[in-house]
Amino acid sequence: MNSLLRKSLSWMPLALLGAAFMVSVPVQADTNVVVVQGAGNGVGGQENSLTRQRAAEEKEQWNDTRTLRQKINRHNEKVFDREAARGDKDWNKLDAAQDTFDKCQQSTNVNAYWEPNTLRCLDRRTGRAINP
After folding, report:
1. Which sign, positive or negative, has the C-alpha torsion 56, 57, 58, 59?
2. What is the pTM of this model?
3. Whether 72 contacts 93, CB under 8 Å
4. Three-state SS sequence of the chain
5. Is the pLDDT higher at 85 or at 59?
6. What mean pLDDT value characterizes the chain?
7. What is the pLDDT of residue 102?
8. Would you say 129 and 120 are in contact if contact means Cβ atoms under 8 Å apart?
């Protein structure tokens, strides 16, 4: 019995050593998570100041891009308003030209005619613009 116990105990250190190697295989996790420590002192106090500096830089960059986005939006609004105003002017010109055309056609002046290229009512004899 002693020999059986001795044989089984002789294998025990080798088995434990093998199990230790199996368990203690170094494992590294691939992570992109930044851990920000609380208000307490970090490792030597440097970790906290570095994260504060990085946060300040990120905030500055965010503010710069925000300012740039606001400038672009204001510019786009001005361009849109300018184009809308031009569209209104063109619409008003065409509307006024249509009214003038109708008045020119209904005019009692027999020498009045409508010039489609200039959108004006002209006198046949003189070629000058007239108010019908």
Report:
1. positive
2. 0.34
3. no
4. CHHHHHHHHHHHHHHHHHHHHHHCCCCCCCCCCCCCCCCCCCHHHHHHHHHHHHHHHHHHHHHHHHHHHHHHHHHHHHHHHHHHHHHHHHHHHHHHHHHHHHHHHCCCCCCEEEECCCCEEEECCCCCECCC
5. 59
6. 77
7. 92
8. yes
The predicted pLDDT at position 48 comes to 85
How wide is the angle at C-alpha 97 spanned by C-alphas 110 and 105, nearest 5°? 25
Q: Where are the domains of the chain?
A: 55-131
pLDDT in tens, 66-118: 999 999 999 988 888 887 777 666 677 778 888 889 999 998 888 899 998 88
Quote the CA–CA distance of 37 and 66 in Å, as a whole number.
Answer: 27
The span from the first CA to the last CA of the chain, in angstroms, equals: 134
